[in-house]
Amino acid sequence: MTISPPVRPRRSALYVPAQNARAMEKACSARCDVVVLDLEDSVGPNEKLQARAAAVEAARDRRFASREVVIRVNALSTPWGREDVAAAAQAKPDAILVPKISAASDLAVARADMHGDVPMWIMMETCAAMLKLNEIGMAGAEAGVEAWVIGSSDLAKEMRCGQGVARPGLQTALSLSVMAARAFGLGILDGVFFDAANPEGLATQCAEGASLGFDGKTLIHPNQIEIANRAFTPNPAAVAWARAIIAAFDKPENAGKGLVDVDGRYVERLHYDDARYLVQVAEAIGARDTAG
């Protein structure tokens, strides 16, 4: 199996209301991995055009330094969605995040409106989407989709299930989404935690997301960044063990072996790719944190 590491870490993806100049300014120095310039949920109907213009300007002038810059547009079915997509594509952000994707046909519409090769991220936040993970994943490969973002709040609302710190009603959807994303070589981010005054709850949910296999978490407030970054940064001991596995399998005498002894423990070759992936993620995070 060949594993392609993420180009950039995505431990923390901060939603920033694009019409809010103060929030945009603060995001320039926030230590998140991804800035998501939001035109959707955090923007009122009367502010949509202002937000669009501000997001386009911010993406063009590259004010967020080394952070990955993503523009979340409005749903394609809204009066603003398709024009958002076209305008965002002209600004050449790192990706355009399209919400309310429920079928493969939605991806074709979004890609046509982009008139180019800007990477696409999509929100997975409907019951219909959860029942079509394979279909959407297959179509995404052709449409240039690079990552999925779980819209856990919208999904819980549609399911009519509770959504506290623990998310028992969403566990099946979360796990299946991670499985499907990995099957198609996609990045995947967990949904937001709205209680910004509850760092313990956020830490619990981030730990859960990391254990499920998510790359990171979407956030609504800068005070959540450090907690998410910590949860989704590989443990130093795990990285050291991964390096030991790589070194053992890279020895000439172990070429072609399916099982080797690493510090007294037997390790199968199938763990070699996992070890390489973990080290590459850790190195990418180190480079990102050094860049500031």
Write a brief caption for the model.
This protein is 47% helix and 16% strand. By secondary structure, it is α/β, with parallel strands linked by helices.
Topology readout:
Elements: E1 12-17, H1 21-27, E2 34-38, H2 48-61, E3 68-72, H3 81-91, E4 95-98, H4 104-114, E5 120-124, H5 127-130, H6 133-143, E6 145-150, H7 152-159, H8 171-183, E7 187-190, H9 199-212, E8 216-219, H10 225-231, H11 236-250, E9 259-262, E10 265-268, H12 270-291
Parallel strand pairs: 1-2, 1-8, 2-3, 3-4, 4-5, 5-6, 6-7, 7-8
Antiparallel strand pairs: 9-10
Structural features, described:
By secondary structure, the chain is an alpha/beta fold. It folds into 2 domains: 12-231, Alpha-Beta Barrel (TIM Barrel), CATH 3.20.20.60; 236-291, no CATH class. It is built from 12 helices and 10 strands. An 8-stranded parallel beta barrel has the order 1-2-3-4-5-6-7-8, surrounded by 7 helices. A two-stranded antiparallel sheet has the order 9-10. α2 (48-61) links the parallel β2 and β3 (68-72). α2 (48-61) runs parallel beside α3, α4 runs parallel beside α6 and α11 (236-250) packs across α12. The longest helix has 22 residues, at 270-291. The model has no long low-confidence stretch (mean pLDDT 94).
Mind telling me the C-alpha Rg?
20 Å
The CATH superfamily of the largest domain turns out to be Phosphoenolpyruvate-binding domains
CATH class of the largest domain: Alpha Beta
Strand tally is 10
Shape: globular
Q: Helix and strand succession?
A: EHEHEHEHEHHEHHEHEHHEEH
Known CATH architecture of the largest domain? Alpha-Beta Barrel
